[in-house]
Design a protein that fits this description.
The protein is α+β, with helices and mostly antiparallel strands. It contains 3 helices and 7 strands; from the N terminus they run ααββαβββββ. The chain is globular, with a radius of gyration of 16 Å.
Length: 148
């Protein structure tokens, strides 16, 4: 658990831990997010074009910062479903693209296995990232969305 968490504010159930993950992500408290992982945890990342398996907390923080540390990051929608020590998260994320400043979105599903009071395994499946064109540059012939 995060070093600053007290016994009172520590999430106790699998659902509460996943809900805290969402809350910390919304606040962009990425150190707090990484603090939710149990010792020896793994994060499987499946994104179009690459797959990764991380177990080092520093690598997890680096990837959280590069993938989720975005300008005007927001959670547009999310749903959590829990069964025992497993929790599924489905969410739609939005932000501003770092390079162009254009609106961007990502559609993801995560499955968490909770053990030892934290996230033991996280599997992330990202359907991709979209960067939307400025409204005045869209023509009838061009698509409204560009895959990145």
């Amino acid at each position: 658990m995060h070093a600053n968490a007290t016994q009172v504010d520590r999430p106790r159930t699998a659902f509460q831990i996943a809900d805290r993950f969402v809350e910390l992500m919304a606040k962009q408290d990425l150190n707090g997010v990484v603090g939710l992982y149990s010792p020896g945890a793994s994060w499987e990342v499946h994104v179009p074009g690459w797959d990764e398996l991380l177990s080092d907390p520093i690598e997890m923080l680096d990837l959280h910062q590069s993938f989720f540390g975005r300008d005007r990051f927001r959670i547009d929608r999310y749903e959590l479903i829990a069964s025992g020590d497993s929790v599924a998260l489905n969410w739609d994320l939005g932000w501003r693209d770092r390079q162009s400043g254009l609106a961007a979105a990502s559609f993801q599903s995560h499955v968490f296995t909770i053990a030892d009071g934290g996230i033991q395994l996280q599997r992330m499946y990202c359907a991709g990232v979209r960067v939307y064109e400025e409204p005045d540059t869209i023509s009838i012939e061009s698509p409204h969305v560009r895959e990145v």
